[in-house]
Specification:
about 260 residues; alpha/beta; Rossmann fold; 8 helices; Universal_stress_UspA; Universal stress protein
């Protein structure tokens, strides 16, 4: 993981995401942070660049990551797709204000980006001010993991911070005794790809999958939630992404969407 892209609009939400990203990359001289500001035609670009200088000045410390700034006009997702190729972006880190639990149909910029971007996105809630990365919960379904490649990103994050990965499966129906063939296959995959950082796999029963995940995070004081929205889908069928959108809006800890 070398290049991190951070959409930045000078709001407290984006400043919080930058602060998290700097701490995430701390003491790793190979990591570059790219701050991207999307502005309107005719905006004062020089003023934006001056504001950027003020923002990044506080992070000019020994062994801190290099921070580069980009100012562009256009649409956010298309700009990111273009920059992903030019800069070889490995992951996007983006802040979010979230939404109330009742606002299920709210579509924020962050939730749209998570759905449309074809690379990993780490979403940092506005109210998440601390930085601690010792334990990660990976939420999986019951089906066999079809695409294992996103696990490499999770391994990179775990290895960098020596974080243990707890795997959680929420089942809406009564749980059967023993592991199925798919469960056994997933255990083999997790042990192989996550190496020593794989802790254990927990199965819980809950009619509401989102509530089951969020309750587990709170009860076990987890530091990050990871999901793999497309790994359980046969072929190239697109996911409606409802659970991904809800977790983007409601998670109280950083959410790593592995794509």
């Amino acid at each position: 993981m070398k290049n991190i892209l951070i959409p930045f609009d000078f709001s407290e939400v984006s400043k919080n995401a930058l602060d998290y990203a700097v701490k995430f990359a701390d003491k790793d001289p190979l990591i570059n942070l790219f701050l991207l500001n999307i502005t309107e035609e005719g905006a004062d670009v020089n003023a934006i660049r001056e504001n950027f200088k003020k923002i990044i000045k506080k992070y000019k410390k020994p062994l801190s990551p290099e921070i580069y700034t980009l100012v562009q006009t256009g649409e956010l997702v298309s700009s990111i797709i273009q920059l992903q190729k030019e800069l070889k972006v490995d992951i996007i880190m983006m802040g979010t204000r979230g939404a109330n639990l009742e606002e299920e149909n709210v579509a924020t910029t962050t939730s749209r980006l998570v759905q449309e971007a074809d690379l990993p996105v780490l979403v940092i809630p506005e109210k998440y001010k601390k930085f601690r990365l010792e334990s990660i919960i990976l939420s999986l379904g019951n089906e066999k993991i079809a695409d294992r490649s996103p696990l490499y990103v999770l391994l990179d994050v775990s290895r960098k911070h020596k974080a243990q990965v707890h795997v959680l499966t929420i089942q809406q129906q009564e749980m059967a005794m023993g592991y199925s063939e798919d469960d056994e296959s997933n255990e083999t995959t997790l042990n192989y790809f996550l190496e020593m950082f794989y802790s254990h796999h927990t199965f819980h029963e809950s009619e509401d999958i989102e509530a089951g995940i969020l309750n587990y995070i709170k009860k076990n004081d987890m530091d990050m939630l990871a999901i793999m929205p497309k790994t359980h889908l046969p072929g190239d069928e697109a996911s409606p992404g409802r659970l991904t959108r809800l977790l983007t809006l409601h998670s109280n800890v950083p959410l790593l969407v592995l794509d």
